[in-house]
Write a structure and sequence with these properties.
Elements: H1 21-37, H2 39-44, H3 48-52, E1 55-61, E2 66-72, E3 77-84, E4 89-95, E5 98-104, E6 111-119, H4 123-139, H5 159-173, H6 205-219, H7 224-236, H8 250-268, H9 273-291, H10 307-316, H11 334-349, H12 363-382, H13 393-416, H14 422-447, H15 471-486, H16 498-510, H17 514-575, H18 586-612, E7 619-620, H19 633-636, H20 640-657, H21 672-678, E8 692-695, E9 718-719, E10 727-730, H22 743-746, H23 758-765, H24 789-797, H25 805-814, H26 823-834, H27 851-866, H28 873-886, H29 891-910, H30 918-934, H31 942-959, H32 965-979, H33 989-998, E11 1011-1014, E12 1020-1028, E13 1031-1036, E14 1041-1044, E15 1047-1048, H34 1054-1057, H35 1060-1066, E16 1073-1077, E17 1080-1083, E18 1091-1097, E19 1103-1109, E20 1120-1122, H36 1132-1136, E21 1138-1143, E22 1148-1153, E23 1161-1166, E24 1169-1172, H37 1182-1187, E25 1193-1196, H38 1201-1209, E26 1217-1221, E27 1227-1231, E28 1236-1241, E29 1244-1247, E30 1254-1255, E31 1272-1275, E32 1281-1286, E33 1308-1313, E34 1320-1321, H39 1325-1338, H40 1351-1360, H41 1370-1380, H42 1387-1402, H43 1418-1426, H44 1435-1442, H45 1449-1454, H46 1456-1460, ...
Helix pairs in contact: 1-6, 4-5, 6-7, 7-8, 7-9, 8-9, 12-13, 12-14, 12-15, 12-32, 13-14, 14-15, 14-20, 17-18, 25-27, 26-28, 27-28, 27-29, 28-29, 28-30, 29-30, 30-31, 30-32, 39-40, 39-41, 40-42, 41-42, 42-43
């Protein structure tokens, strides 16, 4: 860092905060050399150096704002003083980083505190002692507790504190008699310069050196004028040491001005006029040199005119490089093609293992495994009452865990769609968990006969809420309920409450099982270990008590001896009391010796007794001592069968209440493991707990008070916990406490979001009653708009009991009381049909009743009407689903479901695909899916199996074309149905599979031989393949996927559609294609009327796209290949905006718009030329284009002087300038991002957008905006000039942030140069703000040559012209914010920015006002009041800023104290008064108009 940066507060850096002694020594050494060598000092102050020659040593302590000065007295002594900084005043520092307050001391009047003379030999020792004293103070710094009363001075960062420590150090190195320390209080007190005072860290290093010089001169009796002269010479000497400024640099030039401003007070106070004139002359010379610093390097003059110039330009330009012709893809042989087809088939078949025991997370696999697991659990339920069968509970739990993972995946899919009820899936999981619980319960009963007296923990009445759509599931639920009801023994239900669970533990302990006997042995071992520990402890206590008794007797005897010895000594002294020197008597001395010996014996005995008098540690045992404690071991050492039962009971109850609604267990006390860790007496550690945890009181809760060891008994300090203190709790959650939510609501399907509402949902949640059909609240005010009053009543009546649900449903159907096409009605009816209900388990489904027969008759009549009404597909779907479900109970209703499926199939077949519209294809896919859903509960025959597969394959084929999200939501419901259908098609397999493939691939042969695909681990995957003439046919019977050569029949594979080249030109289009070979596809129909496309993936996985014109056939000489943009060596706009089609044989390239649908040729290229095709020829053939190429402009590549100039100045990059030449050899420059163009002829470079203007050869503003180069200067024959400047953010360096994207919309400002005054003019507010940013960013303290003012003053004048009677736009506000970032060097500009922003905000509607992003800069206002240099605000502007009017700057300064106390709230209150018309506006309309019309130089501003 330069020395000047340690002394001056430069405006390109933050305010100095230097408190380094190294800096102080550096400045002092430089100052010392200055005194000896400076010519002005030697000439005008020749005696000064002599006064400084008496200095023996200086120790700088800038962190204390003081220095220790040692001055020579004679050859043996020095005089010690402390020189400190004082008289601090606050100033404001404005820099590029913002404004900040800083403090400066009074250099002319430092604090001088004398200590006195000192031997010169002790100086080094004193310095070391002072350092150690200060370090000790820093270590013992106690901050806020510094008080005189407690003798704590802390560590104060003041000169006075340093002087005090200096005095203490002097006292430590010399005696008080040898030195007399002077005392002198600090003048006006001294200031703490440490950070802990709350202020900024103060700059003390350099000021301390200057104050020391002032003190030396003052002690020598020299006048203060000599110090000022010395400072004037020293500070101005830095004008010679600063780096030379050869080209304009605002901040470097400001450094010279700042040095001169700092020296100015000292120069003005000089009494020697000769010296003053010399220094002033030096300052004038420096200022004059700064004024004429070149504004930048001179630019080369553009050669714009003349024939030779055109020739020279055309000589360096050439045509763009022709792209390389890519190699044609080579196709592999038949074996490799077949191998790659099989690899594609593996990826695209998306098969599912049909018998895997591991769940991979795939949704399709989830539906398959869900059905398989359900069947397994339902089979287990059928054998619950058969004691001959024994299931492995551990395996059942593993299957249940896998089922839970599957339920999570399927539930998420069901929530996204609306054709699968999520409560059905939840019911599957709860039923499976209940079955596992029953098996575990039966196992415990078989292992423990006494367990049969208890009622199972799971309540069978909770199963009435299950919603099941499969008769086998309903039968399984019946078996579970029968099993649980048969074991209902009363109110004693373990695991549901503490009492019954503890009773169960006692019974288990009293049994004779191996586990109970082992628990008894553990408890007996615990008791024996406890007694052993108590005995060992008592043996040690007894031994100590015996020793204490022995020592007590000895102590009593020794105390008697001590008492008699003391009495004897007392008597002897009383006899000789008249003799004053009794201690010289021999008898008294002998008696006193006996006393000392007795006391030593007593002390020794007391010490031994004290060592023995300790309280032994208490014994806290883990288990109670009574007989009930054995039952606690049941929870600590539990058999696997009991653990399984407890875990499954907890799990089933959690699933009943839903895991997210189960309350968390509130634990009290300690868990068992931590209890054992703190207690004693239990050596067994093989703990096998279940879900129930044993909670115990803390062993430290009860503090047993014990007597001294002398009173200890055998049981003193021994504690066993009470049995009643132990409590039970579930691990994690306690589902048996869940009572906050109705179970019926948890097992009720929600409506779709568009119809979901609480009144409608209440009907589904309403609890049924055996005496009434429905108790749902059908209140008129809750009726939705889409239901009539009669329909509303029917809607509410469907929540019937199990006895009458069919009757209620038939009543609604026959009376037509519900809109059956509404999804809410579908949900309601399915909830009615699938929910088990209470009492006799759907008695309406019995064959003796006629409810199902009536329903069959109704649906048959309904279908006769729906056959010709495809718009009523929702009614038909409801009929198929409900009939299929009830068909499990009566076969005739199955026929209704089959008939519904047939109608959907007929509707799909009747749809014509001639139009090939997406809507038509989506409708066909939807009908095929509905046909599959109608067969969900239908029994499969051979014919139905083939029919279902055909429907599935047709649905999958049409789904590939559909872009409807609802159709893809149906896919999840179709996959659920297929997950329940394992279709074994071994009989007639070949003919059936061939027929299925021919439904979607008409060209497939009829003699295919099929083979089944088996997974690598041996699992069946329901996939088959056949090979015929190098063509591979593959089919997946689980999801309906049919592949030819590993790909779908009619669409491009994802490897092509996801390719960046395809997406760039074809977007989301996926045309139907025919497979011409391995990875070779051709569109099956003409696109855009005449064109076919080939898509080929070569051996390197590169995509090639070819275009054929059907009018010329498939002639390869006319084939065009689409090139990758990365391989086209053209300018960015020619690459990014166009597609590039290459004819490799005829060697030409055409550039069209990116979309493949557009065939207009924008550019045509051959080796050596690139033609710009006009619109009239863009649809012509390529032959016509090249035949008339002499008419077209040719695009050139290379750099001309004009293009190089644009790139050098940063106005535009070379890649974004397109250069063309026409047949007349006129060169045209197109700045595509700006929308500007220029034409170069022999007369110069003229602008095509600004008529009459040409590019000025000398592109330089030599007398304004110094350092700014990003512009384009134009002029006309009349001498008028304009400057084109890009828009964008203006940076601190004066540059403009440029956008690098090729498609950026580059805007620009046009500034016209005033013909007379030569200043820059803008026609709009945004331009003036942009120009103000340029002046503020390039401005310095040196005035601009053209305007005669600083850049900040010009920015202020431009900003004044931005007052308008409407609020700023977003662009103007952004530019105002940009200007605010450049206003740190000018307080007036900073305040005016805030003023004009508040003015604009006051004109904005309160509803549209955004959050403020300008805050009032109070520091800037204080700087403005204290500043003596311009620019200044007008009186009206000052009124707006400071809320009062002052005519002159002097009157403002007189009231600076009041003004500086204003904060932003005062200003806001003033502006509120302006908005409410309590005060006049800032400027009237006339004043604003006059200000806008005045030229820039006529506005009143101080120079």
């Amino acid at each position: 860092m330069e020395l000047a940066e340690c002394i001056f507060h430069f405006n390109d850096k933050e305010a100095l905060e230097d408190q380094s002694s190294d800096t102080a020594n550096l400045v002092f050494n430089h100052f010392w050399d200055f005194l000896q060598n400076n010519a002005l000092v030697l000439e005008f102050l020749p005696k000064v150096f002599g006064f400084f020659g008496d200095i023996h040593r200086v120790s700088f302590r800038p962190e204390y704002a003081a220095a220790v000065l040692y001055q020579n007295v004679d050859s043996l002594e020095v005089y010690v003083r402390t020189v400190g900084l004082d008289g601090w005043k606050m100033r404001i520092h404005a820099s590029s980083h913002g404004r900040e307050r800083y403090a400066v001391p009074n250099l002319e009047e430092p604090v001088i505190m004398d200590q006195g003379p000192l031997s010169i030999q002790l100086v080094q020792e004193l310095g070391t002692a002072l350092v150690e004293s200060l370090r000790e103070s820093e270590r013992n710094n106690r901050g806020e507790r510094r008080r005189k009363t407690n003798d704590n001075e802390g560590n104060q960062k003041t000169p006075s504190f340093l002087n005090e420590k200096l005095g203490q150090s002097i006292k430590n190195v010399v005696s008080k008699e040898e030195v007399e320390c002077g005392e002198q209080s600090a003048y006006g007190g001294t200031t703490d310069v440490g950070m802990h005072t709350g202020a900024k860290k103060r700059n003390t290093a350099a000021p301390l050196v200057f104050s020391l010089a002032s003190a030396v001169l003052r002690l020598a009796g020299r006048p203060q004028s000599e110090f000022k002269a010395l400072m004037a010479i020293y500070l101005t000497s830095f004008l010679d040491e600063l780096p030379k400024v050869t080209t304009y640099n605002a901040r470097a030039m400001d450094r010279y001005i700042i040095v001169m401003r700092e020296a100015k007070p000292y120069v003005e106070a000089l009494e020697n006029k000769v010296l003053q004139q010399k220094i002033l002359q030096k300052m004038r010379t420096c200022h004059h040199a700064l004024h004429y610093v070149p504004y930048g390097k001179p630019k080369a003059v553009l050669e714009c005119c003349g024939v030779s110039t055109i020739r020279q330009v055309l000589g360096v330009m050439s045509a763009p490089e022709f792209p390389k012709v890519p190699l044609l893809p080579q196709m592999s042989d038949s074996n490799s093609r077949l191998q790659r087809s099989r690899s594609e088939a593996v990826k695209n078949l998306k098969w599912t293992s049909m018998n895997s025991k591991v769940f991979s997370g795939n949704l399709q696999e989830a539906w398959v495994q869900l059905h398989e697991l359900n069947l397994s659990f339902w089979q287990t339920a059928s054998s619950l009452n058969n004691h001959r069968t024994a299931e492995n509970v551990t395996l059942l739990k593993k299957d249940l865990d896998r089922l839970s993972e599957i339920v999570k995946v399927t539930m998420a899919a069901a929530d996204e769609g609306r054709y699968t009820m999520s409560v059905v899936i939840r019911s599957y999981e709860l039923l499976a968990a209940t079955i596992c619980f029953c098996v575990a319960h039966r196992e415990v009963e078989e292992n423990h006969e006494w367990f049969s007296i208890y009622t199972p923990a799971f309540n069978p009445e909770n199963l009435i809420h299950l919603v099941l759509d499969d008769k086998r599931a309903i039968d399984a639920a019946k078996q579970v309920r029968q099993f649980l009801r048969s074991r209902n023994k009363g109110d004693e239900v373990p695991f549901r409450n503490h009492k019954d669970t503890m009773r169960l533990a006692k019974l288990f302990t009293s049994g004779q099982s191996a586990r109970s006997m082992k628990n008894k042995r553990i408890y007996q071992r615990f008791l024996s270990d406890s007694e052993r520990m108590i005995d060992e402890r008592w043996e040690e206590i007894s031994e100590r008590q015996a020793k204490l008794s022995k020592y007590d007797a000895k102590l009593r005897k020794a105390q008697k001896v001590l008492s008699s010895a003391r009495q004897e000594a007392h008597d002897i002294r009383r006899e000789i009391s008249r003799w004053e020197r009794y201690w010289e008597d021999s008898s008294w001395c002998e008696a006193q010796e006996r006393v000392d010996e007795a006391e030593a014996v007593v002390d020794n005995l007391q010490l031994k007794i004290e060592k023995l008098e300790w309280k032994p540690d208490n014994l806290n045992f883990s288990l109670p001592e009574d007989s009930d404690a054995e039952s606690l071991l049941f929870f600590m050492f539990m058999d696997s069968d009991m653990r399984h039962l407890i875990e499954l009971a907890h799990r089933a109850e959690c699933l009943l209440w839903r895991k997210e609604t189960v309350p968390t267990m509130k634990k009290t006390g300690q868990s068992l493991l931590s209890w054992l860790g703190e207690s004693d007496g239990l050596s067994e550690r093989e703990i096998s707990q279940g879900m129930i945890r044993l909670f115990c009181p803390s062993s430290r809760d009860v503090k047993v008070s014990t007597p001294g060891i002398r009173s200890y008994g055998r049981r003193t300090g021994v504690s066993f916990p009470r049995f009643q203190k132990f409590c039970l709790g579930w691990e994690g959650t306690s589902p048996f406490e869940s009572r906050g939510q109705d179970i019926a609501q948890l097992f009720t399907e929600k409506f779709t979001p568009e119809w979901d509402s609480k009144p409608l949902h209440d009907f589904l949640v309403a609890t049924s009653s055996p005496s009434r059909e429905n108790i749902a609240p059908a209140q008129p005010e809750m009726k939705p708009n889409w239901l009539t009053r009669e329909q509303y009543s029917g809607f509410a009546s469907l929540r019937a009991t199990g006895r009458t649900q069919i009757r209620s449903l038939l009543n609604v159907l026959f009376e037509n009381l519900l809109p059956l096409g509404n999804t809410c009605v579908h949900t309601l009816i399915q909830q009615l049909a699938f929910q088990i209900g209470s009492h006799d388990w759907k008695t309406d489904l019995e064959p003796a009743r006629n409810g199902l027969k009536a329903m069959e008759a109704f649906w048959h009549r309904e279908m006769d009407q729906l056959r010709d009404a495809p718009k009523s597909y929702e009614r038909l779907l409801l009929a198929g689903v409900i009939s299929g479900f009830y068909g499990q109970f009566q076969e005739e209703l199955e026929k209704v479901a089959v008939r519904s499926s047939e109608i959907f199939d007929d509707w799909a077949s009747d749809i014509s695909l001639a139009t090939r519209s997406v809507e038509v294809i989506a409708k066909q896919a939807r009908f095929h899916a509905f046909a599959v859903l109608c067969l969900a509960s239908v029994k499969m025959t051979i014919q139905r199996r083939a029919w279902l597969l055909r429907l599935l394959i047709q649905y999958r084929d049409r789904l590939l074309l559909s872009q409807n999200a609802a159709d893809h939501a149906l896919e999840e419901a179709v996959m659920k149905v297929m997950g329940t259908k394992w279709l074994d098609i071994d009989p007639n397999r070949d003919s059936l599979l061939t027929a299925l493939v021919q439904t979607v691939v008409g060209s497939a042969p009829s003699d295919l031989m099929w083979s089944e695909l088996i997974c690598t681990n041996g699992d069946r995957i329901a996939c088959f393949e056949a090979v015929h003439d190098d063509r591979l046919f593959s089919i997946n019977l689980q999801n309906g996927v049919v592949l030819v050569n590993g790909l779908t029949k009619s669409f491009l594979p994802q490897s092509i559609t996801s390719n960046s080249l395809f997406q760039r030109h074809f977007g989301m289009t996926n045309p139907e294609v025919s497979i011409e070979g391995l990875h070779h596809y051709r569109t099956t129909h003409r696109m855009n009327g005449h064109f076919f496309y080939d898509f080929i993936i070569d051996a390197k996985d590169q995509l090639h796209i070819f275009e054929f014109d059907s009018r010329s056939g498939f002639d390869e000489s006319e084939r065009l290949e689409l090139l990758d943009p990365a391989n086209v060596p053209l300018q960015p706009h020619l690459v990014e905006q166009h597609s590039h089609w290459l004819n490799a044989q005829r060697r030409y390239l055409v550039l069209r718009e990116r979309s493949f649908e557009n065939h207009r040729i924008s550019f045509a290229m051959q080796p050596g030329k690139l033609l710009l095709v006009p619109p009239s020829f863009q649809l012509a053939s390529i032959e016509d284009i090249f035949q008339h190429e002499f008419r077209f402009d040719k695009v050139l590549s290379g750099s001309t002087p004009f293009v190089a100039s644009l790139s050098e100045t940063g106005f535009e990059e070379t890649n974004f300038v397109m250069v063309t030449v026409d047949h007349s050899r006129a060169i045209k420059y197109s700045l595509l991002r700006y929308g500007l163009s220029f034409t170069q002829t022999v007369d110069g470079i003229r602008s095509d957008d600004f008529k009459g203007y040409t590019v000025t050869p000398e592109q330089q503003l030599s007398d304004t905006l110094p350092g700014f180069k990003t512009f384009l200067l134009l002029s006309n024959v009349e001498g008028e000039q304009m400057v084109i400047v890009p828009c964008g953010e203006v940076l601190q360096s004066g540059e403009i942030r440029n956008q690098g994207e090729w498609d950026a919309n580059m805007k620009f400002h046009v500034f016209r140069v005033h013909r007379r005054f030569r200043y820059l003019q803008s026609s709009n507010t945004l331009g003036r703000l942009h120009l103000a940013c340029l002046y503020a960013s390039t401005g310095s303290f040196v005035p601009d040559r053209r305007t005669g003012k600083t850049g900040f003053a010009v920015a202020v004048e431009l900003l004044r012209q931005c007052f308008q009677n409407f609020c700023f736009s977003n662009e103007e506000l952004a530019k105002l914010r940009n200007l605010s970032g450049h206003s740190h060097h000018s307080c007036a500009l900073r305040l005016l920015v805030w003023c004009i922003y508040r003015w604009s905000r006051s004109l904005q509607s309160p509803k549209l006002q955004q959050q403020e992003f300008f805050e009032f800069d109070k520091v800037a206002s204080e700087e403005y009041l204290a500043s003596s240099s311009g620019p200044y605000l007008t009186s009206v502007e000052e009124k707006s800023v400071f809320c009062y009017t002052k005519k002159t700057k002097d009157s403002i300064e007189q009231n600076s104290e009041n003004v500086a106390s204003l904060d932003e709230s005062d200003v806001a209150q003033y502006l509120h008064k302006i908005e409410t018309d309590e005060l006049q506006p800032l400027l009237s309309c006339e004043e604003r108009n006059c200000a806008a019309e005045l030229p820039l130089n006529n506005l009143s501003t101080h120079p």
